[in-house]
Amino acid sequence: MNTNAFRKLSYGVYIVSAWDNGRATGCTANSAMQITSTPATIAVSINHNNYTNKCIQDSGRFAVSILSEQSDPSIIGTFGFQSGETVNKFDSVAYELKGYMPVVKDSCAYIVCEVIDKMETETHTVFLGKVVDADVLSDQDPMTYAYYHNVVKGKSPKNAPTYIPEAQESKATEKWVCGICGYVYEGDTPFEELPEDYTCPVCKQPKEIFVKK
Amino acid sequence: MNTNAFRKLSYGVYIVSAWDNGRATGCTANSAMQITSTPATIAVSINHNNYTNKCIQDSGRFAVSILSEQSDPSIIGTFGFQSGETVNKFDSVAYELKGYMPVVKDSCAYIVCEVIDKMETETHTVFLGKVVDADVLSDQDPMTYAYYHNVVKGKSPKNAPTYIPEAQESKATEKWVCGICGYVYEGDTPFEELPEDYTCPVCKQPKEIFVKK
Predict the structure, then answer these.
(1) Average pLDDT, stretch B55-75?
(2) pLDDT band for position B167 (50/70/90)?
(3) Mutating which of A9, A112, A158, A210 best tests the B interface, going by the most B Cβ atoms within 10 A?
(4) Given Cys at both, which of A4, A27, A185, B31 links A33, Cβ 3.0 to 4.6 Å?
């Protein structure tokens, strides 16, 4: 597996913010996407280790501030490389209230959401938010992760899904191959001894379809 | 609420493919994002009405082909504006087997996933996939939705979360619109004066398909 393929996925650069018992906080995120149009919903993925995750769980609301290519790149560092538990990130970044939520002033649009569902993964929570307020703040182009990476020369914080550690794996292959999808059988039971109703786990075609290679 | 804010979210342009009982099929999607890095997982959002949704549910696997700026834009129309239930989309789009899945040849990277979780919304399923194979196919820049919209002048298919009904789009007085994919002709030559063999640059349908609006 070549994890560099993940770098070809396109993202924006966002500040996901929430209230922490009356104090505004937030974190940098790349993973936000619209899920449905009516009613409008947005999904964001936030690491369990991000203090913002806890704040969203507690308050049930989050705001996505969409940074533009002209946004001050230091905002990304302020929100991305330190914890909102110990630092008042909004002390150095101006915000205004939109849909009752703190939104970064220096952004080109914002979307305020009410959490209506979530999905847990090993390291991140995917929050599904129903949009309760949204507006465009400027006609500047949104900053893409590629722009940030290539132009601003940013780096992913460790908690980001886009973070890539050094190690990569490879795998070995063997003999019986599905004639439709090319799936290679690698089970412990010899292929010949598999039951006659065995089917390809990928394309569901019957055992006869397999060829020895 | 100003839904134009949603247009400031950044996306790529992807073909999400699956096996349909031994037949390769798929659909165009914008909504794909990495959720975790170890183990690597990817979320994609697919409309309930897309036949590909059923195929992913049945087979438990999907592939994401990441289109590049150089990819033939007609691929987007082929996979985005017709149903895989009735059309063999891969008949006109070359694919190769990667991780036992059909992957669009004319793309810059692919990611193959095994479904490990999902979240239902009113119109879309968010599939969470564990990455089982991934690779970079070319060093071309990935196509972003903004590039597609601004350069290729594409439009969202109706099933896409990024779809915005006609009423909210900025309106010109009179325009020629492709009856299949909704592409709006904006060339300098008056539409009537275009050669008879003119075809829609997105879905490749003939001139007669265009309607005046």
Answers:
(1) 94
(2) very low
(3) A9
(4) B31
